[in-house]
TrEMBL record:
Keywords: Cytoplasmic vesicle, Golgi apparatus, Membrane, Protein transport, Transport
UniProt GO BP: intracellular protein transport; vesicle-mediated transport
UniProt-recorded name of the protein: AP-1 complex subunit gamma
GO cellular component, one term: AP-1 adaptor complex
Domain GAE: 666-781
Main localization (coarse): membrane
Pfam families linked to this entry: Adaptin_N (PF01602), Alpha_adaptinC2 (PF02883)
Family, per entry: Belongs to the adaptor complexes large subunit family.
Length: 786
């Protein structure tokens, strides 16, 4: 005899009345025991009541798998009360991972053919929720028949079931193509909305369906025009806008049909202009329709005037009080800035105002768009605004802002002095947040601008005297003092206020840097080298410098100790060569960012291997530089290869300086190494003829999906016999639908010509999820290493 159990309402009250989690578990365990006992007794009148209680327990997070077979029994029951609970239980307790879900296929098929509308609705809802691909294939013909049933209730649910079937098995597209054309004549908005969604799914998964439905563009245009011109309808109106849900879906479908199709785009241009000018924007529903209109205009072959109108709409969105609307506008303008740069430029002042937003997501989007709007004509004004933002921006935005200003200055600097002043301002304001190559870029810029050497060294000396906490600034200043300290002592700079700097002041400042607890080992290396070079610029004796250098001969830092020991040896044994060894760095020729990408790739080999960088940067713990390399100022960040063995033919050409050159190598085929959900990675290869051991690998990331790829990071590793240098990528976002790709350059040195293997790690955000992929590429073409 089964003990009496609680009713559903009593069970809910008792669970809610439990004061502790232990009491709640006790009530649920006791009731689950009653439910199991009832199921074993097989009382058909109590089965649906017991299952209803079990479903409530399941929704609270407790195990309820033992009720799966009871769901099947209730679905097979002829009583509607049993079917209702049975189908609900199937939707909650069953999915594709359980083989039991296949057992209800026949029951669903029987219920779909019965002709009882409530039962058909239950079966269609269950199929739309948990139907697997196998179930969809078995029941596709039944759903097709229901698409043309006279009852709107059944037709609407059948359309939604068809959408689920297409998503599960795109091969079923041919079954649902004919009914869609008839369903477009429906007056019922629910059925029409479901039909538009079904057509969208068909077009995105079948090129034949896309071509087929381009014929109905005039009909879709007429439906949308009717929605706009009809008067106020209480049934379908939302905030005074006639059925905005249906309008948005039709506009989305028009965008799919008009993409890359001139004739369809021409048909919808007039309607889009009408929607863009007549939609009420005082409520959020109107803004939703207007935003979808803008996306459609930008994605099809629309007229130039219509595209300008769309950009102006987004500009008005920037003035909206709703932060969500402003964020959407900034994101959309960022996608359009490449294709409609001049139109977006008209709203530059509004975009800059958005930098002052307190919301972090808005200010980040405004920063990205502001950096994209910088060009040669507005670089001074925009840089001034960005520098003001840099001084007060949140810490998590400083790195992006600083890097963006430096890149913009490098691309569009009107004069070299302005370029130097801009970098110095960034280093002074946010030096700890700049990219690793900022120090090398500034030293290279100063070294190549001979007329500004006095001005630069004075500015840097003044900045260093005020603040020694910004490590990149200290490194550049130390390098500049070491190179041009004689100009600092002369004090004949016409562009700054005349002031006399004494030798003792300079030495005291460099010693202060060496002794500061804020100085990194790299910074101390700069300061020690600057002292050594300054010894050849002094007019007096070098005893103070020799004493400081000798102190660091016993430093715990291996790199700093080696420098000091080598410098001491230079003082003791090779003092007659010291002035020649510590001469000023020669000018380093460097192409600007406007240089053609392919030419830059060809020069990168000599820049990486043969050209000495102007300053030492981050030391490598595993590699000690020899004396002459160090004194020549070779960059420690650069990988130093072993001596290469050139081919005899090439050696003769270089030695004799003959005008002949070896024939150009055959092109190396590109390689696709990654593809996931529309995101592809392709590798292209170049081996500079002058450096056969060097391989330049250009990584290209493309995105053909419907969602942007953001925060993209690519990391690589090679075997120990190789040397790898990763250049900074062109960005971290790949726009959807074939937007501008990300490119990144790998420089790989292979002196032994061993077979090349790459290990890659990709991290990015896509469709709202964080993705990480780690894989190895070992099928590179033989031409990359032989």
């Amino acid at each position: 005899m089964v003990a009496p159990s609680l009713k559903l309402q009593d069970l809910i009250e008792e669970i809610r009345g439990a004061k502790t989690q232990a009491q709640e578990r006790e009530v649920i365990q006791k009731e689950c025991a009653h439910i199991r006992a009832s199921f074993r007794d097989g009382d058909p009148l109590q089965r649906h009541r017991q299952l209803a209680k079990l479903l409530y327990v399941h929704m609270l997070g407790y195990p309820a798998h033992f009720g799966q077979m009871e769901c099947l029994k209730l679905i097979a029951s002829p009583r509607f009360t049993d079917k209702r609970v049975g189908y609900l239980g199937a939707m909650l307790l069953l999915d594709e991972r359980h083989d039991a879900h296949l057992l209800i296929t026949n029951s669903i098929k029987n219920d779909l053919s019965q002709g009882i509308q409530p039962v058909q609705g239950l079966a269609l809802c269950t199929l739309s929720t948990m139907g697997s691909a196998e179930m969809c294939r078995d029941l596709a013909t039944e759903v097709e028949k229901l698409l043309l049933q006279p009852s709107p209730y059944v037709r609407k649910k059948a359309v939604l079931a068809a959408v689920h079937m297409i998503r599960k098995d795109p091969e079923l597209s041919s079954i649902f193509l004919p009914p869609c054309a008839k369903l477009l004549h429906e007056r019922h908005h629910g059925i029409l909305l479901g039909t538009i969604t079904l057509i969208m799914e068909l077009c995105e998964r079948s090129p034949a369906a896309l071509k087929h439905f381009r014929k109905v563009v005039p009909q879709l245009v007429q439906i949308l025009r009717t929605l706009m011109t009809t008067g106020f309808s209480t049934e379908h109106s939302v905030s005074g806008v006639s059925d905005p849900f249906l309008q948005v879906q039709i506009l989305h479908l028009l965008r799919i049909l008009g993409r890359n199709h001139e004739e369809s785009s021409e048909t919808m241009n007039d309607l889009l202009a009408q929607v863009a000018t007549n939609t009420d924007t005082s409520r959020n529903a109107g803004n939703a329709v207007l935003f979808e209109t803008v996306l459609t205009i930008m994605d099809i072959h629309s007229a130039a005037g219509l595209r300008v109108l769309a950009v102006n709409i987004l500009g008005r969105f920037l003035l909206n009080n709703d932060k969500n609307i402003r964020y959407v506008a900034l994101t959309s303008l960022l996608r359009l800035v490449q294709s409609d740069h001049s139109a977006v430029q008209r709203h530059r002042s509004t975009v800059v105002e958005c930098l002052r937003e307190t919301d972090a997501s808005l200010s980040r989007r405004a920063l990205e768009l502001s950096l994209a709007l910088v060009n040669s004509s507005n670089v001074r004004a925009m840089t001034q605004e960005l520098q003001a933002f840099l001084e007060s921006c949140p810490p998590d935005l400083r790195a992006d802002c600083a890097s963006g200003i430096l890149l913009a200055a490098e691309r569009f600097a009107p004069t070299k002095r302005w370029h130097i002043d801009t970098i110095l301002h960034v280093l002074t304001t946010a030096g700890t947040h700049v990219r690793d190559d900022a120090v090398a870029n500034l030293t290279q810029l100063i070294g190549g601008t001979q007329e500004l050497h006095p001005y630069s060294v004075r500015r840097l000396y003044s900045a260093l005297a005020e603040d020694i906490s910004q490590q990149p600034l200290v490194q550049v200043a130390a390098w500049c003092i070491g190179e041009y300290g004689d100009l600092l002592l002369e004090g004949n700079c016409e562009e700054t206020e005349p002031s006399q700097v004494e030798e003792e002041e300079v030495l005291a400042l460099l010693e202060k840097v060496l002794q500061s607890h804020m100085s990194l080992p790299t910074t101390r290396g700069y300061a020690l080298t600057a002292l050594m070079k300054f010894s050849t610029r002094l007019r007096g004796d070098n005893n103070r410098i020799r004493q400081v250098v000798s102190i660091y001969g016993s430093c715990v830092d291996v790199e700093l100790q080696q420098r000091a020991v080598e410098y001491n040896t230079l003082f003791r044994k090779y003092d007659h060569m010291r002035a020649a060894i510590l001469e000023k760095m020669p000018l380093v020729e460097r192409g600007g960012p406007q240089v053609d990408e392919e030419a830059k790739d060809n020069k990168s080999a000599s820049q990486l291997l043969g050209t000495a960088a102007p300053v030492p940067t981050e030391p490598q713990a595993t590699k000690l530089l020899d004396l002459l390399d160090l004194l020549d100022g070779t960059s420690e960040d650069t990988q130093h290869p072993p001596p290469l063995a050139p081919s005899p033919g090439g050696a003769l050409v270089h030695l004799l300086d003959l005008p002949c050159a070896p024939p150009p190598p055959a092109p190396i085929p590109s390689l696709q190494v990654f593809e996931r959900e529309g995101v592809q990675m392709n590798l292209s290869f170049i081996r500079p003829p002058e450096t056969p051991a060097l391989l330049l690998v250009t990584v290209t990331i493309t995105n053909s999906s419907k969602d942007d790829v953001t925060h993209f990071i690519c990391q690589a590793a090679v075997p120990k016999s190789f040397q790898l240098q990763l250049q900074a990528p062109s960005g971290d976002t790949v726009p959807a639908q074939g937007g501008f790709p990300i490119t990144q350059l790998f420089k790989i040195l292979n002196p032994s010509k061993a077979p090349l293997r790459l290990k890659l790690r990709l991290t990015y955000n896509h469709f709202g999820q964080a993705v990480q992929e780690i894989f190895e590429v070992n099928n590179l073409p033989m031409e990359t290493w032989q």
